[in-house]
Amino acid sequence: MLYDEHMNPGAIPLSVLSKITNNFSEGQKIGSGSFGEVYKGKVENDFVAVKKIIQVSVDEKEYKRELECLLKVKHKNIVRFLGYCGDTQWDMRKIKKKKKAKKEEIVQSNKEERLLCFEYVPHGALDAYIKGDIWHPNITTPRKSPRSLTCTVLAF
């Protein structure tokens, strides 16, 4: 279902992404950066990469803009975008109104989860090829400029 090549990317429930990544366990984490963490998930006999976006790093407009771009892009040399998740859950929490106050107030807080799901491609990220941290036999000129190397990697 999730990995069907004939389906267009769509909404994926948080419960599905949580299940395939073993509840976003450390053992499934394959990368992290300023915008979030990436987890490897198993779907039937295939693997996917799930990017869990850190709330403070991306606002709603940026997330929507990225999502719109990902939904439009389809090319054989670009990692396939499989779907997205935008989940908001609310919780009730007790907080003290003032630092020295003994009385607590119950407030509602929202927890927003923003995730993107892609096909899993082994051998690291594109930036590692561009920087020369990873070598691949089909990339014959690792000392090219970053722009021409990017084109070489995308053509691969």
The name CATH uses for the topology of the largest domain is Phosphorylase Kinase, domain 1
Give the low-confidence spans. 141-156
Mean residue pLDDT = 78
Under CATH, the homologous superfamily of the largest domain reads: Phosphorylase Kinase, domain 1
Morphology call: elongated
Task: Give a nutshell description of this structure.
23% of the residues lie in helices and 35% in strands. It has 156 residues and is of the alpha+beta class.
SSE topology sketch:
Layout: E1 10-11, H1 14-20, E2 29-33, E3 36-43, E4 46-53, H2 60-72, E5 81-96, E6 104-119, H3 126-131, H4 146-155
Parallel strand pairs: 1-5
Antiparallel strand pairs: 2-3, 3-4, 4-6, 5-6
3D architecture notes:
The chain is an alpha+beta fold and 156 residues long. The protein folds into two domains: 10-122, Phosphorylase Kinase, domain 1, CATH 3.30.200; 123-156, no CATH class. Helices cover 23% and strands 35% of the residues. It contains four helices and six strands; from the N terminus they run E-H-E-E-E-H-E-E-H-H. The protein has helices at 14-20, 60-72, 126-131, 146-155; strands at 10-11, 29-33, 36-43, 46-53, 81-96, 104-119. Strands 1-5-6-4-3-2 form a six-stranded mixed beta sheet, with helices on both faces. A hairpin with a 2-residue loop joins strand 2 (29-33) and strand 3 (36-43). The longest helix has 13 residues, at 60-72. It is elongated. Mean pLDDT is 78; it is low at 141-156.
